[in-house]
Amino acid sequence: MLSRFRNHKNKRKEGYFLKNGAVMLEQLIHSFNGNCNPIRMYFGKELKKATNNYNWDRMTHENWNFQLYKGVHDDHEILVKKFEGDSNSCMDPLELITNEAAIASNMSKQKNVLKLLGCCLETELPTLVYEFPAKGILSHHIYRGSQLLPWQTKLKIAVEVADAVAYKDRGSCSCSTMARERGSSIDI
C-alpha cells in the first residue's frame, strides 16, 4: 500500500514537472527569443529543508496568491516564493508565475532587483527561488520602520525603482505584464 502511494506521488510530481517545465521553457523562449540567463532547478525536498518545511516563523511576506519564506540552502540565504492557485483570478496562475520567472531571469543583472536563482517545477505551481536581499526587503524598510524615511531616501528609492522599470522596458521582453515583487538592496 505504501509503495503504491509513493508511486502515485512520484507520478504526480513528474506530471507537474513536465507540465510546468514545458510552460516555463515556452515562456522563456517566447519572451526573450531564447536569450535568457540560466536558472537552477531545485527539488521540492531541498526547499522544504531550506525553509524548515515552510515553517510559519520563516515567512517574511504573505500576499493573496503567494508566501515568501526565508531559507538557507548550501550555506546561502534564499527567498522562496511559494504560490497558491486563485480561482478568482482572471489570469492563469501558471502563466503569471512563468511570466515572472522569464522577466526575473532576464533582469538578473540589474542591481536593484532580486536575482532569480532558480525554481522548483515538482509542485502544482512552480516555486521560485531568489537570492535573499542582504539589506532586507524594501517594503519592510518603508512600511515597518518605526521612523519615517527622510525625503532624500524616498527620492533615491523612487529613482532606483524607476531605473529598474526602465531597464525592464529597454530589454527585449515581449511579456504583457511585469508581475514582480520588488525586492531591493537599495542603501537606506
Describe it.
With 188 residues, the chain is of the alpha+beta class. The chain has one domain (2-170): Phosphorylase Kinase, domain 1 (2-Layer Sandwich), CATH 3.30.200.20. It contains five helices and six strands; from the N terminus they run αβαβββαββαα. The protein has helices at residues 2-32, 44-50, 93-106, 138-143, 151-170; strands at 40-41, 59-62, 66-73, 76-83, 116-120, 127-131. The relative contact order is 0.17. Mean pLDDT is 81; it is low at 172-184.
Summarize the structure.
The chain has 188 residues and is an alpha+beta fold. Helix content is 41%, strand content 17%.
- In round numbers, the mean pLDDT is 81
Number of strands: 6
Structural class: alpha+beta
CATH structural architecture:
2-Layer Sandwich
Strand order, biggest sheet?
1-5-6-4-3-2
GO molecular function: ATP binding; protein kinase activity
Domain Serine-threonine/tyrosine-protein kinase catalytic: 72-167
GO biological process, one term: cell surface receptor signaling pathway
InterPro entries: Kinase-like_dom_sf, Ser-Thr/Tyr_kinase_cat_dom, WAK-like
Overview features:
alpha+beta, ATP-binding, Ser-Thr/Tyr_kinase_cat_dom, 41% helix, 6 strands, Kinase-like_dom_sf, 6-stranded mixed β-sheet
Secondary-structure topology with pairs:
Elements: H1 2-32, E1 40-41, H2 44-50, E2 59-62, E3 66-73, E4 76-83, H3 93-106, E5 116-120, E6 127-131, H4 138-143, H5 151-170
Parallel strand pairs: 1-5
Antiparallel strand pairs: 2-3, 3-4, 4-6, 5-6
Helix pairs in contact: 1-3
GO biological process, one term: defense response
Protein name: Serine-threonine/tyrosine-protein kinase catalytic domain-containing protein
Keywords: ATP-binding, Nucleotide-binding
